[in-house]
Specification:
Elements lengths: L13 H21 L6 H20 L3 H18 L7 H23 L8 H10 L26 H12 L3 E9 L6 H13 L3 E6 L2 H5 L6 E8 L5 H7 L4 E8 L38 H23 L7 H21 L11 H5 L2
Antiparallel strand pairs: 1-3, 1-4, 2-3
Helix pairs in contact: 1-2, 1-4, 2-3, 3-4, 3-5, 4-5, 10-11
């Protein structure tokens, strides 16, 4: 019996999700057929955006084969819209073949059964058309640690984390991403770039933080120090998929821990010991926690918000609910405390009650 496929999507979300998928597949089909009449910039841009969005949608539900094939299709359109590739008859045929396979992969989301569609052959042809890899735009030079960033931007705890990751065999990279000055919602693009980097690495330091980006506190730029075991070029490849970036740089990070101080000479016998230094209470402590646990906590918070609102709305009809609402509030406080303590360094902030209630 065939194995049942599992995707990260709920049954009540499926209808709306498929509507979006069908919309983007239709836009891609129109764009591919339009190439036979000539490749105009507007058509190429629209088709590239459809492929890029479809890749993000299918990647979200973890339909990896569909996301990979859509990525290859979008890369081909990116090459054509930037003038690096020509819309030849062979390219159009390969794109139509890819579209047929994508439609079969879409049905897997409904049936949860393998369609039998083979993506390897069409992927090879698409990759051969792009010269064997992604048609990546040349990044615009941006400021790196050699121009002011480096060890001085990391706390002692972050520097220790860098050394620990190096000892585990991870590469330490410095990433600087700049959004286009005319981009729509540049903070969202920078946040998207950070999330893309996090797919292949662990963020050790980030300036500005995600919370600061959400408040618009940025200068069209974000700086990261990350640890990764991914193959060289992986982060560059991920960032190339983010639209509206003016440029990015991914370089080895030169952050090193300062040498350990020489041990102090032994004190003469009978010398009173120096008082212990007070604990540094100003260092922000962080813990690592699984994404699954954070998702569970966020789901609990959502349920608490919903129940609390319903209880308060029915308070006039049932005064006894008031005490239940207070109990729910206490549960919220406990969950919120757990969320606040389970955070990534400078990257995640637990929502306040007012923020959650407004969702």
């Amino acid at each position: 019996m065939e194995d049942k496929l599992v995707f990260d999507i709920e049954a009540d979300e499926l209808e709306l999700f498929l509507e979006e998928v069908n919309e983007h597949l239709h836009a891609m089909e129109s764009g591919i057929l339009g190439l036979e009449q000539g490749a105009n910039p507007a058509l190429l841009n629209e088709t590239f955006r459809a492929a890029h969005t479809l890749k993000a949608l299918t990647g979200t539900i973890k339909h990896h084969r569909m996301a990979e094939l859509t990525h290859a299709t979008g890369t081909l359109f990116d090459g054509m819209r930037t003038g690096q590739l020509e819309a030849s008859g062979a390219v159009v045929d390969d794109l139509l073949s890819a579209l047929d396979v994508l439609k079969h992969l879409r049905e897997e989301i409904v049936t949860l059964r393998p369609s039998g569609a083979d993506t390897s052959a069409v992927l090879k042809r698409l990759q051969a058309a792009t010269g064997g890899g992604a048609a990546q735009p040349a990044p615009v030079p941006v400021r790196t640690h050699r121009e002011g960033r480096g060890a001085s931007d990391l706390s002692a705890e972050q520097q220790a984390q860098v050394n620990a990751c190096r000892e585990e065999g991870q590469a330490i990279l410095e990433v600087v991403v700049t959004a286009r000055s005319d981009a729509f919602a540049p903070a969202a693009r920078l946040s998207q770039a950070v999330i893309a980097v996090m797919e292949a690495s662990q963020v050790i330091a980030q300036r500005p933080t995600m919370a600061e980006l959400a408040k618009g506190q940025h200068a069209n730029r974000v700086w990261l120090v990350v640890a990764t075991k991914a193959e060289p070029g992986t982060i560059h490849h991920l960032l190339a998929d983010v639209v509206d970036l003016a440029g990015f740089a991914v370089e080895p990070c030169s952050v090193e821990m300062p040498p350990a101080p020489a041990p102090a000479p032994p004190l003469p016998a009978g010398t009173p010991a120096a008082p212990a230094a007070p604990a540094d209470l100003g260092v922000d402590k962080t813990v690592r926690i699984s994404v699954e646990r954070l998702d569970t906590l966020m789901n609990l918070v959502g349920e608490l918000v919903t129940n609390h609102t319903r209880l308060l709305q029915g308070e006039s009809c049932a005064p006894a609910w008031k005490s239940i609402g207070s109990s729910e509030t206490r549960k919220w406080s406990s969950s919120h405390s757990a969320l606040s303590s389970a955070k990534y360094p400078d990257c995640w902030e637990a929502p306040s009650w007012e923020m959650a209630a407004s969702l």
